[in-house]
Design goal:
This protein has three helices and five strands. A five-stranded mixed sheet has the order 1-5-4-3-2, with helices on one face. The longest helix has 20 residues.
Length: about 160
């Protein structure tokens, strides 16, 4: 059975990885290598489909490949989605999860809640999320990632 602590550990590794990507933005080649490794370690692209709906996407809302995930996280000249600006190279100084709940099973887990991203000026952005995880070689990897901004009736 997957434990709550395993999910919390996976969330911390994800947050630390996104922050690290941003810290490498001035060294493009190192950033690209790290981002590729981050996606291999945190997402299960090699083990089947990944359902990825990033927050800041309007035209190509869903990303099912590692190439599209790289595009979203770091953009660049070779991005696969032209609307991408490089979410992870913001950079962020802190990311914290507030989990609303978990579904824990033998080889799958789901977590839902809000996560908060703090930028260099100390501004915090609240984003809603659902992450689905599956065990791949005894490592929890994301195979479902849905993020969206909270409903704003004035928008």
């Amino acid at each position: 059975m997957i434990t709550k602590q395993q999910v919390l550990d996976a969330q911390k590794k994800w947050a630390d990885g996104v922050i690290k990507i941003g810290s490498l933005k001035d060294s493009r080649s190192e950033c690209e290598i790290y981002t590729s490794d981050f996606l291999d370690n945190r997402y299960s692209f090699e083990a089947g489909p990944v359902l990825f709906k990033p927050t800041k996407c309007e035209l190509q809302q869903f990303r099912s490949t590692k190439i599209d995930a790289v595009s979203y996280f770091i953009a660049g000249d070779h991005r696969s989605c032209q609307e991408d600006q490089g979410f992870a190279i913001q950079p962020w100084t802190k990311i914290r999860f507030e989990n609303t709940g978990f579904i824990l099973e033998t080889s799958r887990a789901i977590a839902m809640g809000n996560y908060f991203f703090t930028d260099l000026d100390g501004n915090e952005a609240k984003v809603e999320y659902t992450f689905g995880y599956k065990l791949v070689d005894e490592v929890l990897k994301i195979d479902l990632h849905h993020s969206s901004f909270p409903y704003n009736p004035n928008a």
